[in-house]
Design a protein that fits this description.
Blueprint lengths: L1 H20 L10 H4 L12 H18 L11 H7 L8 H13 L3
Helix pairs in contact: 1-3, 1-5
Length: 107
């Protein structure tokens, strides 16, 4: 199980780097209300890139660092396709990372 945690942490680092490379990483946190959204991907109050940065990466990092129970399924790739479709051709690395993360978390 520890190997899965290490792989997830590695991929989260790649995901963060890809978001930063594309200028989708922000030093300004979303509002507290946005972070408490109950909608899927907090889509009512933040963009998908923000959700990855402020919700997905921190939560999975927390679980992986503590060797906690990882989600049995991840299916964020279709949402990423939709959210990043306007970035035309610049998302190969980002989408590859998201695809690998879905693969790691699907058992």
């Amino acid at each position: 199980m520890a190997n899965l945690h290490q792989e997830v942490l590695r991929e989260l680092g790649i995901l963060q780097l890809e978001l930063q490379t594309l200028g989708l990483w922000s030093d300004i946190a979303p509002s507290e209300d946005a972070l408490l959204s109950t909608e899927p991907f907090c889509c009512d109050l933040m963009g998908f890139g923000e959700w990855l940065q402020w919700i997905f990466i921190p939560r999975l990092s927390y679980l992986a660092e503590r060797e906690g129970e990882m989600p049995a399924k991840s299916g964020i790739y279709p949402m990423a396709e939709e959210a990043f479709r306007d970035l035309d051709g610049t998302t190969k690395g980002l989408m590859g990372s998201i695809s690998r993360m879905d693969g790691l978390l699907t058992r």
